[in-house]
Specification:
The complex is a heterotrimer of chains A (158), B (660) and C (285). Chain A is of the alpha/beta class. Chain A is built from 5 helices and 4 strands; from the N terminus they run E-H-E-H-E-H-E-H-H. In chain A, helix 1 packs across helix 4. The longest helix of chain A has 18 residues. Chain B has 5 domains: 123 residues, Rossmann fold (3-Layer(aba) Sandwich), CATH 3.40.50; 176 residues, FAD/NAD(P)-binding domain, CATH 3.50.50; 81 residues, no CATH class; 163 residues, FAD/NAD(P)-binding domain (3-Layer(bba) Sandwich); 67 residues, Alpha-Beta Plaits (2-Layer Sandwich). Helix content of chain B is 27%, strand content 25%. Chain B has 18 helices and 34 strands. By secondary structure, chain C is α/β, with parallel strands linked by helices. Chain C has 2 domains: 134 residues, no CATH class; 108 residues, no CATH class. Chain C contains 9 helices and 5 strands, in the order H-E-E-E-H-E-H-E-H-H-H-H-H-H. The longest helix of chain C is centred in the N-terminal third of the chain and has 17 residues. Chain C starts with a helix and ends in a 27-residue tail after the last helix. The relative contact order of chain C is 0.12. The chains are: A alpha/beta (158), B alpha/beta (660), C alpha/beta (285). Chains A and B meet through helix 1, strand 2, helix 2 and helix 3 of A and helix 3, helix 4, helix 5, helix 17 and helix 18 of B.
Chain lengths: 158, 660, 285
Amino acid sequence: MSVDVEKKNVDPNWEPKILSFSCNWCTYAGADLAGLNRMKYPENVRVIRVPCSGRVNPQFVLRAFQKGSDGVLVCGCHPGDCHYVTGNYFTRRRFLLMQRFLEYNGIDPRRFQARWISGAEAGKFRDTVTKVSNDIKALGPNKKFQESWYKERGESNE
Amino acid sequence: MSRTGVFICHCGTNIAAVVDIAKVVEKAKSMPNVVYVEDNKYTCSEPGQQAIKDAIVKHKLDRIVIGSCSPRMHEPTFRKMLASTEINPYMLEIANLREQCSWVHTDREKATDKAIDLVRMAVAKVAKNHALFTSSIPVTKRALVVGGGIAGIQAALDIADAGYPVTLVEREPSLGGKMVMLDKTFPTMDCSACICTPKMVDAGQHPNITVMTSCEVEKVSGYIGNFEVTIRQKATYVDHSVCTGCGICELKCPSKVTSEFEQGMAQRRAIYKPFPQAVPAKPVIDAANCRKLNGKAKCGICQTQCPQGCINFEDEDKLITNTYGAIVIATGYELIDWKSIYGEYGGGQYPDVINGLQFERLVNASGPTEGHILRPSDGKEPKSVVIVKCVGSRDPNKGKGYCSRACCMYAAKHAHQVLEKIDNAQCYVFYIDVRTAGKAYEEFYTRTLEDGAIYVRGRVSKIYEEDGKLICKGEDTLSGQTVSVAADMVVLETAMVPAAGVEKVATLMTISRDNDNWLQEAHPKLRPVETHTAGVFLAGVCQGPKDIPDTVAQASASAAKVCGIFSKAELQTNPMISKVDIEKCSGCGDCAGICPYKAISMQDMEFIEHGKKITRRVSTVNSGLCQGCGACVAGCRPGAIDLLGFTNAQILEEVDALCL
Amino acid sequence: MSDIQQELRKTARELLESGEVGYIIGWGKGRFANQTHPIFVKDPAKVDELVWDDYCLSTLAKYTQDDKYPEKKIGICVRGCDSRAVNRLIQDHQLKREDVYLIGIPCSGKLDPETNEPAKKCVECAHRNPVVYDVLLGSPVEEVPQPERFKEVEELEAMTPDERYNYWADVYDKCIRCYACRNVCPACNCRECYTDQYRVGWQGKQNNRAENQIFGITRAYHVGDRCIECGECQRVCPMGLPLMKLNRKMLKDINNLFGAYEAGLDTETKPALGHYETNDVEEFM
């Protein structure tokens, strides 16, 4: 049975759910700075604070898609600037592979992104989340990997 | 069932103007485990905090969520508040409703929806929080200062004066660093050696200071309060415990070598003190240039001449290990190698194009010319001197992008000295800007102008020799005309760059470096002397270019930080660190390989399995070393290692709550 | 082949009689002529139960994991795949080299009992000779280069995302979550697999597409940088799912991104996710 993927009959008021894992020292600080500077960006991005992008287990990303997220963004300090010296070098390897692997499993690569955003780059934070948000709005709701597939089709699948 | 209290802050109108607080409160009431919700004008204020404390008692709350400004702002405040209640300070989550919601959004409805989501995520996470407790580690009250320039000397003296033992390590044979090479110091023009050498002597004689010259840090392990440091004492071939510093050996040594201290403008012997006021005032042998040690001749004259018999050609490097509670890094700077990047200035082919430190030695009464400004090429007094600023600084294409900060002032000082010491001299200063931010600096610069220094705004584009003169061509960008000055001598005020070997020090202590290799402070404004490695502090130019007053101030600041650590018998550790579930741990060791702090080690532990006593390899975390990054946690496939405060279960709950 | 079988039995008898090993893990005859299964021979009198024929498909090293603290050495028959599995387990600190005696057997490939054609995992094998052993029976066979190591992966990569999604969704729909792939895999050697940790909630127990997708992707990601390409997961899958297409995708990207890599050829080369280079490929600027 094949899933009807991507947008069809999308509610015009539909807002995507986008999850951003942000490291406490750089990207989270950059996002706070965006606030201090009263920059504006779409409301549909929610940030989960982690100490380091190296803390982000790729399974969290899978979980987000499964539970209904339309896009996931993992952000950390620039390589070489990691508060914990080397954490983001591992992040880079993990997500270079995970991004390709998700794509191989049929996820549009625009739905999963990783970016380096420093504590000073409030503008980059705004621009990145705005772009990701716009991309995902254009893609429409994500149906892939989602539990809802199972729920919609009821108990008979159990 | 847990009992969660939710407190939503208006932050005056900062949050309330955009987010519909009443709606957030209403929605929060139906979130899982939430038993009490209230909003407050200013949660961080005294009455706001009191309201939380009262609610905790009244509603028997066991954890709380605060919807307010960024946790980076007030998490410590609220943790502190909880410490005076029945609730553990770590049973707290903060939803960032200000910096990441009300301040960045305008659509009231959507911002309110987002605020509700953020609160729901925090509520979901806090349900999985556990009480965390700081533990204490003992402090070794002994400090290590790396680098014996003015920064290291000042830091060592301050710590020692506070009553704590200090080891001051310097890789050169004497303390003093760059400052002791200088002639006068701006803006007061007091003699650099006259104010620096007494400090060196103080450090050398201080009962609490152990000076270790010709030494380098070889290995560092451990953590704040308990660093185990191995220092390499390089072979000096002179037994300093016996040597009286009489200097006969130096007089008799037949090997003449270019003097580093005199910036290549004079010679020293192979057995030498770098300069007469060296501390310790005892010579060392430069093995590469000693005829006996490099095998070029039998020699050994110093050994036969030494009345104390302290020359030992069999001397070898020694490794000395000791424990220190805190470390100050003061490795300083060197000048950029302009010859390799500025071919247009002759690339070193003209001996009368010199750098600022060479000029310092030329003008110094104890220097190679006894303080007479004479050209290195022919020993004649230059009548026309060109000073070029920003050689290598503010030049991202060839040199460094940054400003070296001290050059504007010492260029003014050099111009002043030229005009003062040479009759009828002319002095031209090519500059991009004149930056004189400092007490009495601008006045000093103005005085130099009054002395007759001619400031030309523009870079020198080329220096070449013509008829015995050095022709400096440049553009006066104020008048737009090309300028050509025929000079007898040119002084290049070159950029400061981190001292060679700083990478090794940074790696040993896991200090990060910026793009230009300066050591990175923990925060550019609020933690300027700390590093990201707890217990390691920065002093002086190793952190970035600065002049002597700033260097000394930073050194004293780092000393104050060290004394702050030493004033406690024990240190509290961060409880948000990795923890191993040994039942799940299969001992693969991936976590240990990932940890940047060497905080994880693999240990053999005894277990009973199926009635049999076995030894199983499991991972253990050193709570003093772990900084709580969690990179190991994401690398552990079965999740046997978890990060307290950011556990897998907590983050999964947050993800689920958002996607609801 | 029967020469090697004779030699194997002789070696096994000597090892057991001398007390050098406590038992030998090898292959024994199944109920049907074209079947073998792993057997554990403890008694020197029973070494004739060991066989070496066209159907010795099981990779044996994982069976050491049921006896992690052996009183005596364990003797294991190792071909290329088994020996790489041994290296895998040693590198993951799940097996000590001194706890095993490796009886090396060069292997020219086995037959699929269903079709009597060469087995898929053997056709794709790049290391037929054991890479580590204590004794070698017979003489080394010629290695067959595998230029088409990633051909199946490339075929999938050429599809559109939706085609790929549907392809995999069909695969995951068939998965019955028996975990045979995990249990047989020498890289799956955690004490407690994440799938079994219901309290943390990594993964639901339900057998539905969404949970199966999470399992399938996570399994491949967990073993991807350490997969020795023995193909056992795919061979043992009762639903015949193409699991190596997942594993090889990880390996293909690792090879492309971080340099040529084959797992289990030694015990020193670090898996891609266990280390990093500061100048790794940068795509996240």
